[in-house]
Write a structure and sequence with these properties.
Number of helices of chain B: 0
Distance between the termini of chain A: 42 Å
Shape of chain A: globular
Largest interface: A-B, 26 and 32 residues
Order of helices and strands of chain A: EEEEEEEEEEEE
Order of helices and strands of chain B: EEEEEEEEEEE
Helix content of chain A: under 10%
Oligomer: heterodimer
Strand content of chain B: over 45%
Number of strands of chain B: 11
Structural class of chain B: mainly beta
Largest sheet of chain B: 7 strands, mixed
Helix content of chain B: under 10%
Number of strands of chain A: 12
Shape of chain B: globular
Chain lengths: 115, 113
């Protein structure tokens, strides 16, 4: 069984300040983990993925995430927020032997970026 | 460009009517999926298919039906049996391999009027 918990439903930051979106997971296997971003009324776009290689994963648009097995966490960070980062972000877990049908989504974190 | 196309973007349905949402992909992916998205609930899997002429129920299949007659196409029918059909519907596809990610369409917003 697997699950994912996004610890904040809403995060607000000022433009130019760091972003931290928190995600904890539970999995019976060594998991694969993803972060997706969704802009209003749009589909989901993959930001980055962890698949048991380097624990620090770099993604698009300056985002990165660190896999910490001891803490069962996969938090998403960005050094400096931009207005265009305002969107909803989903943390996703899957088992390594599964197909995408085994994706389990968190409930999402809405990121607000203010001037 | 390769991708997943969902149509229409917005759809209105009267209560008691069936409606079909279209999903087409030209990524040559074997697997296709339908998700439903409601505010504050993330994405929930409705149906998925890993091969033509075969599909499996996801977590919330009741009131929905699908077909997979072609590799490129995976239409979803929302039937009158679905008690609360108003939602944002997302189609996705992927290759069949460990650790693979899914690629998503732009979604269809269905509203029952």
């Amino acid at each position: 069984a697997q699950s994912v918990t996004q610890l904040d439903s809403h995060v607000s930051v000022s433009e130019g300040t760091p972003v931290l979106l928190r995600c904890n997971y539970s999995s019976s296997y060594s998991p694969s983990l993803f972060w997706y971003v969704q802009h209003p009324n749009k589909g989901l776009q993959l930001l980055l993925k962890y698949t048991s290689a380097a624990t620090l994963v770099k993604g698009i648009n300056g985002f990165e995430a660190e896999f910490k097995k001891s803490e069962t966490s996969f938090h998403l960070t960005k050094p400096s927020a931009h207005m265009s980062d305002a969107a909803e972000y989903f943390c996703v877990v899957t088992a390594p032997t599964g197909t995408a049908s085994k994706l389990t989504f968190g409930t999402g974190t809405r990121l607000q970026v203010t001037l | 460009d390769g991708g997943i196309t969902q149509s229409p973007k917005y759809l209105f349905r009267k209560e008691g009517q069936n409606v079909t949402l279209s999903c087409e992909q030209n990524l040559n992916h074997d697997a296709m999926y339908w998700y439903r998205q409601d505010p504050g609930q993330g994405l929930r899997l409705i149906y998925y298919s890993q091969i033509v002429n075969d599909f499996q129920k996801g977590d919330i299949a009741e009131g929905y039906s699908v077909s997979r007659e072609k590799k490129e196409s995976f239409p979803l029918t929302v039937t009158s049996a679905q008690k609360n059909p108003t939602a944002f519907y997302l189609c996705a596809s992927s290759i069949l391999r460990d650790t693979t990610e899914a690629f998503f369409g732009q979604g269809t917003r269905l509203t029952v009027v």
